[in-house]
């Protein structure tokens, strides 16, 4: 007889990840030609990170000592970056862990949770693992657009929610709510925990973070990541900012040993050299503008996006994915999500990278990917 988990875990639907075939490419030359545009990672690591981590390896405890569980230097660097107190910052081994910890801290069996659809599905998993009830809300008549008033009305129609999860900019669609709209949401539901996931906020025009709003709204949690703009996805580093009383509760479940010194040092180094990160982001945004214009000019359909990614609609998603993969280009299939039929999501890089992606599309037969003609 096999052991069974508790019922709500047994019933969980796994988070669907895309292929990780790239880790099984043994030829270094071939691996160097891969464009991994399926997980919204950075296309490169800044040299200053490699240099600082190489220096740290000479430290006698770099590998065999437990890390600094308080992550104080990193917390202060994040706080300085955001104009907050380090008491309002709590780092984690990835923003996913931060989100999971908020869910474990504030959700219990039967608690209603509101998620935007389409959206990042991993938080759904964390909430359901706590026994929460999920309500997916399409914020308006068009799943590819966002209406805060429609979102608020839909939540009110559902009844009191324990937690609302919003992604800024939305992944996978790419739209962005304004600061005024976020304030309206926070004012409408003062008794509800509200998470604003800002994994991609650095790529939004003006970088309109909600972080300063935690000083006005003590039910707000802002989660941010070092995996995207900062290029540290493999080191796993993220954080949450909120009222210090909320962080005191999160700290009860946080295991500081899971935040390595390599991640802490890399994150601190980049924050101390933030202009280098901003230069990289500017190049990605230039690639976003160039590819969007060029793709449309050739008859392709691509959504406007405030992230380092965009959705493209193609005639045959599986065939397009196969042909791109043959060119060493990996993209994410989103065509099975309700409202995203026929759509793929690709990650942006600088213009020289996006020129190679466009050439791969142009090499395909007419009508396979052009849907705007």
Automatic annotation (TrEMBL):
Recorded hits in SUPFAM superfamilies, A to Z, give: PLP-dependent transferases (SSF53383)
Task: Write down the EC number.
Answer: 2.6.1.-
Reported cofactor(s): pyridoxal 5'-phosphate
Domain Aminotransferase class I/classII large residues, every copy: 37-360
Q: Which residues cross the membrane?
A: none
The entry lists its GO molecular-function terms as: pyridoxal phosphate binding; transaminase activity
User: Which keywords fit this entry according to its UniProt record?
Assistant: Aminotransferase, Pyridoxal phosphate, Transferase
PROSITE patterns in alphabetical order: AA_TRANSFER_CLASS_1
Describe the family membership recorded for this protein in Swiss-Prot or TrEMBL: Belongs to the class-I pyridoxal-phosphate-dependent aminotransferase family.
Keyword Aminoacyl-tRNA synthetase recorded: no
Q: What name does UniProt use for this protein?
A: Aminotransferase
- Gene3D superfamilies attached to this UniProt entry: Aspartate Aminotransferase, domain 1, Type I PLP-dependent aspartate aminotransferase-like (Major domain)
The organism's superkingdom is given as: Bacteria
């Amino acid at each position: 007889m096999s052991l069974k988990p508790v019922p709500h875990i047994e019933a969980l639907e796994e988070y669907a990840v895309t292929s990780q075939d790239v880790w099984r490419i043994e030829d270094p030359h071939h691996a160097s030609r891969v464009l991994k545009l399926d997980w919204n990672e950075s296309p490169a690591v800044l040299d200053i990170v490699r240099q600082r981590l190489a220096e740290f390896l000479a430290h006698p405890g770099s590998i065999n000592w437990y890390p600094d569980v308080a992550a104080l230097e990193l917390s202060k660097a994040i706080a300085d970056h955001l104009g907050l107190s380090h008491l309002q910052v709590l780092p984690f081994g990835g923003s996913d862990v931060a989100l999971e910890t908020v869910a474990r801290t504030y959700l219990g069996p039967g608690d209603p949770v509101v998620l935007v659809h389409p959206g990042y599905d991993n938080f759904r998993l964390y909430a359901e693992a706590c026994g929460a009830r999920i309500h997916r809300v399409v914020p308006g008549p068009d799943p590819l657009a966002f209406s805060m008033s429609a979102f608020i009305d839909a939540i009110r129609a559902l009844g009191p929610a324990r937690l609302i999860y919003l992604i800024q900019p939305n992944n996978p669609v790419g739209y962005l709510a304004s600061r005024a709209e976020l304030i309206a949401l926070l004012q409408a539901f003062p008794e509800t925990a509200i998470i604003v996931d800002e994994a991609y906020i650095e790529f939004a025009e003006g970088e309109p973070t909600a972080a300063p709003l935690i000083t006005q709204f003590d039910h707000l949690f802002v989660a941010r990541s070092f995996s995207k703009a900062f290029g540290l996805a493999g080191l796993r580093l993220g954080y949450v900012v909120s009222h210090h009383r909320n962080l005191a509760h999160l700290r009860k479940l946080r295991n500081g040993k899971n935040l390595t010194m390599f991640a802490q040092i890399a994150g601190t180094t980049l924050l101390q050299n933030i202009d280098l990160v901003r230069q990289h982001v500017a190049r990605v945004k230039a690639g976003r503008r160039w590819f969007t214009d060029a793709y449309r000019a050739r008859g392709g359909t691509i959504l406007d996006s405030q992230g380092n990614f965009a959705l493209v609609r193609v005639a045959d998603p599986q065939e397009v994915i196969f042909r791109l993969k043959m060119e060493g280009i990996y993209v994410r299939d989103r065509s099975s999500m309700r409202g995203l039929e026929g759509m793929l999501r690709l990650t942006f890089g600088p213009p020289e990278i996006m020129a190679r992606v466009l050439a791969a599309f142009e090499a395909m037969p007419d009508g396979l990917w052009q849907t705007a003609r």
